[in-house]
Design goal:
It is a single chain. The protein is α/β, with parallel strands linked by helices. Helices cover 21% and strands 32% of the residues. The chain contains 2 helices and 8 strands. Helix 1 (39-53) packs parallel to helix 2. The longest helix is centred in the middle third of the chain and has 18 residues, at 68-85.
Length: 156
């Protein structure tokens, strides 16, 4: 019996809470999943449902900067899924999902992107950061196969 599941790409933004997952058919967003909580508690059940419903042909994720543990969980889970199911894994930085605004780090520090480099800089609390959002169209050209996590700050 041929596979009758819809072929989709999955985009995961797991850098903070809420966890965002986008389901894309022909590069267009057809379903979005938003869950509060720790990605370590959410990934397995969410992806069990996704894999039951869809034929996943590509995995995409934001590989940082953000919460160290969230980045690590996303990387480990998606890498394992990629290997186990033979699904290619792609990554890009998180600035693609918040209109390139600063991302909160520790204290008054924020991650910023200047001249294609991501740095941590003290810029205060009055900085406007946009929440992460799933794009309506998946621009796969913005992603690459270097899906290593972007750990900008050392682990504490």
């Amino acid at each position: 019996m041929p596979n009758s599941k819809l072929k989709v790409d999955i985009l995961v933004i797991a850098l903070s809470s809420p966890l965002l997952i986008g389901v894309y058919s022909d590069k267009r967003l057809i379903n979005s999943i938003t869950r509060e909580g720790k990605s370590s508690d959410l990934f397995a059940t969410l992806f069990e449902d996704i894999l039951d419903e869809y034929d996943v042909t590509g995995l995409y994720y934001a590989n940082g900067p953000g919460s160290f543990m969230s980045i690590k969980m996303g990387y480990v889970f998606l890498s394992a899924l990629s290997i186990a199911k033979d699904i290619p894994l792609f990554a890009t930085d998180a600035f693609a999902f918040n209109n390139n605004t600063p991302i909160k780090a520790i204290g008054k520090n924020h991650y910023i992107k200047e001249n294609n480099a991501i740095i941590m800089k003290m810029i205060g609390d009055s900085v406007k950061s946009e929440a992460f959002a799933l794009p309506q169209k998946l621009e796969s050209g913005a992603f690459n196969m270097n899906h290593q996590p972007l750990y900008i700050a050392p682990a504490v």
